[in-house]
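Need the bound structure for adenosine-5'-triphosphate, inputs here:
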Amino acid sequence: MSKHEFNIAVFDGDGIGPEIMAPTLDLLDHVAAGHGEFSLNYTHLPAGALHYEKTGESLPAESITAARQSHAILLSAMGLPHIRKPDGTEIVPQIDLRIELGLFAGVRPVFTFKNGPQVLSDERAATLDFVLIRESIEGMFAHKDEGQVVDNEYATETLRITREVSEQLFDFSFKLARSRARKLKRPGKLMCVDKANVFRSFWFFREIFNERAAQFPDIETSAMYVDAVAMKMVQSPWDLDVMVTENMFGDILSDLGAGIMGSLGLAPSADIGANNAVFQPCHGSAPDIAGQGVANPLAMILSASMMLEYLSEKFNCPQADVAGVALKEAALKAAAQESGRGRDVGGKADTESIIRTVRDYLA
Ligand code: ATP
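Answer from helper R.:
Posting the output first, comments after.
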């Protein structure tokens, strides 16, 4: 059996970013060594708010090129509120990278687990499992640097939906619904989340969704307005499966999803395009706790587990998936223990203790 060597581009990030990235790479090496069929080579690339402060550049062209050439990109949290561009906006290389690499599908799994920190009291909320797919390169973010305030009297922003990106997004979402159905041994479902009753752009989005649905007759489809989905996510999230939505709606709903899980410190994500993929925690750089050794690394570890699943499917390396599942299971078991429960979820464990607990479950 030939061994896969995966080149991973690593962005260590700002704030708590480096504190959660370093132990995650150690855990990745550990599971890779344990599963034989593949190895991971890391290239650390400069970017972020501190890099901008030093050099005036937030995401160097060389970093983009190296990231583009990698098999996958692992990114920790970036940006710091006190370091801003002259126009007052924050440094967000993670968003620039999505646009540069055409990472149109933001995958945000939402799940809870036994003895986890989930906030909903209904017993069905203890084991819920759904996925939100956030379109990540257009929608309300398509012209994010071009909004205008005119004469201090009114302000405008532009929302853009294109057929090309929407078709790619929906095809990706149908395939994900199909592969989830296969893994979970249940029928595949996909819901389009929009505001087609009010905005033409969302009606266009919905029509493209319905067109693409014809190519995936095995997947049951539905559609709901975003406001109704927000309520459903709180009242009966256990009924949800795979949902796909516009960028801004997805931005908001994915934090709601992290809230249902119990903490941003547990919520992983992936941004996937035709040729590249970034894996990163949903949370930001948490400057309020940086340097204290108390950041919860589980969202980063769970994102790394999603990376292994992606590498497995994309490059036909089954052992990477096995390793990813092992890493995810160890992280969730750790999260249910006192020694794996960080302060963000009402516990006392520091980063080192959480990592040690995950490591013990992997041994
Ligand atoms: P961004 O806009 O960059 O996503 P944000 O403004 O939403 O960032 P975060 O940096 O995500 O803010 O932090 C929000 C709160 O959650 C902070 O109080 C932070 O300390 C806490 N937090 C975020 N991530 C973690 C983590 N991994 N472990 C512990 N606490 C965290």
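Comments: The pocket of adenosine-5'-triphosphate is lined by residues 16, 79, 264-265, 283-286, 288-289, 295-296, 299, 342, 344 (CB under 6 Å). The first strand starts at residue 4 and ends at 11.
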